[in-house]
Fold Putative oxidoreductase.
Amino acid sequence: MATAWFGPSPDWIWKHRTEHPSAKTILLTGATGGIGLAVARRLLSSGDEHLLILTGRNVDVLRQFEREHPDRVRAVQCDMADLGQVAGLVQHCEVHGSLDALILNHGTLGNCLRVAQMAGNKGEEWERVFKVNVTSCVVMISEALPWLRQAKGRIIFTSSGAAQNAYPSWGAYGASKAAINHLTMTLKNEEPDVTTVAIRPGVVDTAMQKDIRESFLSNMDEKDQQKFRSAKEDGKLLPPEKPGNIIAELAVSAEKELSGSFLSWDDPKLKDYVK
């Protein structure tokens, strides 16, 4: 990976901010596939010349971003189950002197076990899913809040319809996303200078959907199995750019009145963020 600072030298960033006053510094997780990849591309294609700190599972994609945008992208490898590494992500902001937005897009379905199948597991499956999907976000936010308060910044979560609609074997995942929605409301009340929004992205054509069809359908009810099969077969999966573009725009300019909300990507309240 490249140097810790943006640009060819440590003082480059100050010149960049002077020349591009609308540029935001944004930390994006889950940036190497699906929705996160779409978000990163949207932000990098903006004429505002945003600066991105990216993390994701695919190291090759991270390196490609740095090659294509050597001054504006800094890629960081991070295991979201390692909370020490997660806290360290935000230390990169100290080098850059600011952070305008967090886009928390990472997550795991886990092994999709029904509760009865967890006998003898000692809760390890739920603990792992919550560590990746929830606790890592809390750790990152707590470290980032001094920067976000100063910038009157934004936190955007990729949530899920599973937070409100229960599927057999998705208990850990759905509960973790419900926790994210509650965290969104909590942050609205605790951090009035930071705008926090959770987005339901819909059923999107991502690696997660592929994993569901190929690995996890057998543990679901028949009607739910058919729902996920037919979404692919009938061409009903959304392209990642649909929710991704909305998430990108919210990270840059979400209005305060949206704070604390869990909204579908196509909610009428978000019509002004469709560019």
Summary: The mean pLDDT is 93. The two ends are 32 Å apart (CA to CA). The longest helix spans residues 124-151.
